[in-house]
Amino acid sequence: MEWLQRLKTIYDIIRPVVDIALLAFLLYKAYDLLIKTQAVQLVKGAGLLALFYGIAYLLKLSTLQWLLTILGPGLFIAIAIVFQPELRKIFIRLGQGELFHPDSKPRIGQLEAVITAAEILSQQRRGALVVFPRRINLKSIMETGTRINGEISSSLIVAIFEFDGPLHDGAMVIQNGRIAAAGCFLPLSEQQDIRKSFGTRHRASLGMSEQSDAVILVVSEETGAISLAVDGKLYYDLSPLEVQRKLKELLDRGVRGGESEQTTAAPDNAVGSTIDDGKDVFVER
């Protein structure tokens, strides 16, 4: 049929464009994922091995080529073992649907309600953990707690984190402009060089930020400090205005397509200390 032939002709014309566009999208997402999980070192190691092998092949260095042929598989396995935590994070993020999962951010008024609650909790020295998912689905985290599906209000947040309450020690998840769940369990950070004064809440916030692209607000029960954790970094002891500005910026960027660690600036009242895996933990002066 003539119209089918026309469709086939049109498809043949646009097929290379579609092919290149999809490949570019997948390469960009793969690069973005590698950057966020710090697995770029894994790619660099594999690339270095391939470079040495290519040089040995072109220059006909038979001994080096033979040695790399023998040791190559073992070296790749060793690299995979060394970078096992990063590979696990990559597969976790892929399984959680980071590539295609859309997520809506809270409105300004809702953010203000959360920050007001954080101020109240800070003044009363009551700890809190609030998770703001971005593109990665945190359904598995919410299933560890109690479903709320309630409107965001400062009074409800303060009540949930009441001393000795059943949901006090867990984390609250705010998703799609509502309090989705509370009393949720978060994974603890795998970082070794963490400030000893940081308790379980701070370690859990860092752990959640390492395994997802979520932004986590933390209120310290010991000091009342309000902090933010994102991409394996902790921004410690921020003022309410800094929290509001940083939260809005991070959630906006998360919806638009993510943020790399290099683009996140430290607040004026914080300094960074580099730890073994290259991530920064910000501590008060």
What labels would you give this structure?
two-stranded antiparallel ribbon; YojJ-like (1; disordered C terminus; 2 domains; 285 residues; 9 helices; alpha+beta
Number of domains: 2
Look at the helices and sheets and give the structural class. alpha+beta
Q: Could you give me the name of the CATH homologous superfamily of the largest domain? A: DNA integrity scanning protein, DisA, N-terminal domain
**CATH-defined architecture of the largest domain:** 3-Layer(aba) Sandwich
The top level CATH class name of the largest domain: Alpha Beta
CATH topology of the largest domain: YojJ-like (1
Explain this structure:
By secondary structure, the protein is of the alpha+beta class. It has two domains: 2-95, no CATH class; 108-284, DNA integrity scanning protein, DisA, N-terminal domain (YojJ-like (1). The protein contains nine helices and nine strands. It has helices at 2-36, 40-58, 62-82, 84-95, 108-123, 139-142, 154-160, 200-211, 240-256; strands spanning 128-132, 146-151, 171-175, 178-184, 215-219, 226-230, 233-235, 270-274, 280-284. The strands form two sheets. A seven-stranded mixed beta sheet has the order 2-4-3-1-5-6-7, sandwiched between helices. It has a two-stranded antiparallel sheet with strand order 8-9. The longest helix is centred in the N-terminal third of the chain and has 35 residues, at 2-36. It starts with a helix and ends with a strand. Mean pLDDT is 76; it is low at 255-285.
Short description:
The protein is α+β, with helices and mostly antiparallel strands. It has 9 helices and 9 strands. The strands form 2 sheets. It has a 7-stranded mixed sheet with strand order 2-4-3-1-5-6-7, with helices on both faces. Strands 8-9 form a two-stranded antiparallel sheet.
